[in-house]
C-alpha cells in the first residue's frame, strides 16, 4: 500500500526538508520501518520498545491511531499518515 | 521580539482566568513567514490538570490542517501556569516541538499578577523575548479574529 506521510517541522532535518514523503506498507509500523530505511533515525523519534512515544501523535487520515489499532492499524492505498508532535507541557 | 495585538493579550488572559485552576492552552495562527499572530484558537486541554496541558489530538490535527489550507503557521503557542511564574517548566522545554513558534506563558496565579511572557525554545535552550503590545497592526493586514 502506498501512502503519503506528512512530516512535522521538527523531523524534517531527517527527510532532507521534505514536508511529505511516499512510503509503502500494510500497516503503520511497516510504513515507519520503510521510512527508516530511506531516512535513518526517524523510527527512534516515533517509537520506543514497540510503542509510539506518548507525545507523538500519529494519524491515519482523520483518526488518531491510539483510538484504532495503534501501530498495527491497517492502511489502504492512498491513505494519508500524519505525524504531529503533541503540544504539551506543564 | 513578539508583537501582539492588545485584543489577543486580553483574550489569553481572560481564557486563563476562566479555566483557572486548570491550565489553559491554545494557538495563535498567522500568515506563514509574517511572524504576526492574528487568529486565536483556544484548545482543549485533555490533561485537565493544574500542572500539565496537552492539546486534544483530534482538535490538534483539525486546527493544523486548517492552518495549512489557509497558508498559516502556529506563530504563538500559549498556555497558563496556575501555581508558578510565567517561565517555562522542565516539561515545557522537553516537549517544545515548534522551533519557529513563540511560546507564550500566562500566570493565572494572583501572586504573580497578570504576568504574560514570551520565549523561544529550541533544542532545549530557552530564550526570553520582549512582548510589544500594540493597539493596531499595519492597516493593510487582515483583521483579527478572536474566537
TrEMBL record, chain A:
Pfam families found in the cross-reference section = ThiS
Q: Which Gene3D superfamilies match?
A: 3.10.20.30
What domain of life? Bacteria
User: Which PANTHER family does UniProt cross-reference here?
Assistant: SULFUR CARRIER PROTEIN CYSO, SULFUR CARRIER PROTEIN SLR0821-RELATED
Q: What is this protein called?
A: Molybdopterin synthase subunit MoaD
Q: Which organism is it from?
A: Nitrosomonas aestuarii
TrEMBL record, chain B:
The record's listing under Pfam families reads: Prok-JAB
> Membrane spanning segments where?
none
Name of the protein in its database record: Proteasome lid subunit RPN8/RPN11, contains Jab1/MPN metalloenzyme (JAMM) motif
Looking up InterPro entries in the UniProt record yields: JAB_dom_prok, JAMM/MPN+_dom, MPN, VirAsm_ModProt
Please give the superkingdom of this protein's source. Bacteria
- Which is a Gene Ontology cellular component entry for this protein? proteasome complex
Which Gene Ontology molecular function entries are recorded, alphabetically? metalloexopeptidase activity; zinc ion binding
**Keyword Hydrolase, does the record have it?**
yes
**Which biological process annotations from GO are given for this protein?**
proteolysis
Q: Where is the MPN domain?
A: 2-125
**Alphabetical UniProt keywords:** Hydrolase, Metal-binding, Metalloprotease, Protease, Proteasome, Zinc
Amino acid at each position: 500500500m502506498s501512502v503519503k506521510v506528512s512530516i512535522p517541522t521538527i523531523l524534517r532535518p531527517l527527510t532532507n526538508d521534505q514536508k511529505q514523503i511516499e512510503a509503502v506498507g500494510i500497516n503503520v509500523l511497516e510504513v515507519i520501518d520503510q521510512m527508516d530505511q530511506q531516512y535513518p533515525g526517524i523510527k527512534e523519534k516515533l517509537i520506543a520498545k514497540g510503542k509510539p512515544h506518548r507525545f507523538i501523535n500519529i494519524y491515519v487520515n482523520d483518526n488518531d491511531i491510539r483510538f484504532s489499532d495503534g501501530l498495527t492499524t491497517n492502511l489502504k492505498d492512498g491513505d494519508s499518515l500524519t505525524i504531529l508532535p503533541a503540544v504539551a507541557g506543564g | 521580539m513578539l508583537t501582539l495585538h492588545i485584543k489577543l493579550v486580553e483574550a489569553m488572559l481572560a481564557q486563563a482566568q476562566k479555566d483557572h485552576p486548570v491550565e489553559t492552552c491554545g494557538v495563535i495562527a498567522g500568515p506563514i513567514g509574517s511572524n504576526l499572530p492574528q487568529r486565536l484558537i483556544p484548545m482543549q486541554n485533555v490533561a485537565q490538570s493544574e500542572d500539565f496541558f496537552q492539546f486534544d489530538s483530534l482538535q490538534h490535527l483539525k486546527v493544523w490542517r486548517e492552518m495549512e489550507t489557509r497558508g498559516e503557521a502556529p506563530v504563538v503557542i500559549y498556555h497558563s501556569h496556575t501555581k508558578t511564574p510565567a517561565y517555562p517548566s522542565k516539561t515545557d522545554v522537553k516537549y517544545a516541538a515548534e522551533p519557529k513558534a513563540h511560546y507564550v506563558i500566562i500566570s493565572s496565579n494572583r501572586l504573580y499578577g497578570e504576568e504574560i511572557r514570551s520565549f523561544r525554545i529550541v533544542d532545549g535552550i530557552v530564550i526570553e523575548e520582549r512582548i510589544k503590545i500594540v493597539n493596531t497592526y499595519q492597516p493593510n493586514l487582515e483583521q483579527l479574529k478572536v474566537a
